[in-house]
Amino acid sequence: MALKLRKKTHKDTKRRPRKQIVDLTFQNIGGYDSVKQEIRDAIIMPMRHPLLYKKLNIRAPKGILLWGAPGTGKTLFARTIARECSATFYHIRSSDIMSEWFGVSERRVRQLFVKAAKTKPSIVFFDELESLAPNRQAIMIEDARTSLLSSLLSEMDGFVPLNQVTILGSTNIPNRLDPALLRPGRFDKMIYIPPPNKAERKEILKIHLNGKPIDEIDVDILAQKTHLYTGADLELLVNNATTNWLKKFIANKKEPLSMSYFEKALDGVRPSLRGEDLRYYEYLRNYFERSSSSTNMKSELSPTYYG
Ligand SMILES: Nc1ncnc2c1ncn2[C@@H]1O[C@H](COP(=O)(O)OP(=O)(O)OP(=O)(O)O)[C@@H](O)[C@H]1O
Ligand SMILES: [Mg+2]
Questions:
Q1: 7 CA to middle of ligand 2, Å?
Q2: Does the structure show a pLDDT above 50 at 7?
Q3: Considering only CA atoms, which residue is closest to atom 15 of ligand 1?
């Protein structure tokens, strides 16, 4: 009996690629000087000087994958890159693309690439890429994502580089992505965003403390006490300390935001990373530095939590 396919009658009116205006610069990102430099070389320079790249026949990476632990600033970096390149930013999550209707997801992918080319310079950012393009071997039964992945791959293959559309992806678990995505001409550059070290935590804290009524805060000590905290944890820490201070301020207790508020906030905000997460990310970093394909990759490994 012939297989019945659902008719393509569904009107795809609800979801459209979201275009965003971003108001961020690298100054809003604390630390990570070497990551910023890598991003300038791989993305910003080719986006800003497409004609020079074309004339000298230099190939810029087509797709760049930002990977690392949750809360280390991958989305922040993507938004900032768009701003630094004055590019239109398309922030795509799997829910923007996935549909249970036959052919709709694939059509959305196609439309997205067409739209990005029309509005260039543009950056298409696939957030949490593993939910759009998981390793096909790990999917027990063929589901909608298999054909969606094929569309994504063929759009990336057919895509002419150096036309000022850059594709970014982000993931916490690159070993769970379909290996075909990481082949040359697709996500052919991977940039690791590690958990912040002490000097970086200090810079991140300074950014989030900026403009707060602080008094005698020893940022160095705070950075020391926040081993395994990510940028997102540090933001939450400062936010909680400031909120507690504000409650007292409103209740008429006029005192500066001092270190004691941060000591208290440290009890409530625990680091989201664990030692074993560092080992997981280091394993992957070593793996990807040696090879860009995922053969022999321990795809079953995962961090203790991911977004
Ligand atoms: N280097 C940093 N400097 C300043 N703030 C930071 C930094 N890293 C993270 N943050 C703060 O943490 C918030 C969350 O970061 P972001 O959402 O970019 O993390 P992520 O890596 O995308 O996480 P996930 O993997 O869960 O999506 C940012 O909006 C920012 O406020
Ligand atoms: Mg993110």
A1: 35
A2: no
A3: 73
The structural domains of the chain, with segments of one domain joined by +, span 19-195+277-290, 198-268
The Cα 226–Cα 133 span in angstroms is 34
pLDDT at 62: 87
Q: From 3.40.190.10, 1.10.8.60, 3.90.79.10, 3.10.20.70, which CATH number describes the 198-268 domain?
A: 1.10.8.60
Candidate ranges 13-22, 248-257, 263-272; pick with highest mean pLDDT: 263-272
pLDDT at 68 exceeding the cut of 60:
yes
Q: What is the pTM of this model?
A: 0.88
Atom of ligand 1 nearest to the CA of 193: 21
Q: What is the pLDDT of residue 3?
A: 38
Atom of ligand 1 nearest to the CA of 29: 3
The CATH class of 19-195+277-290 is alpha beta
Residues 85-103: what's their mean pLDDT? Answer: 87
In terms of pLDDT, which residue wins out, 146 or 201?
201
Q: What integer pLDDT is reported at residue 10 of this predicted model?
A: 44
Task: Give me the residue label for tokens 């054909």.
Answer: 147
Q: Which ligand is nearest to the CA of 207?
A: 1
Ligand nearest to the backbone CA of 197: 1
pLDDT in tens, 29-67: 999 999 999 999 999 999 999 899 989 999 888 899 999
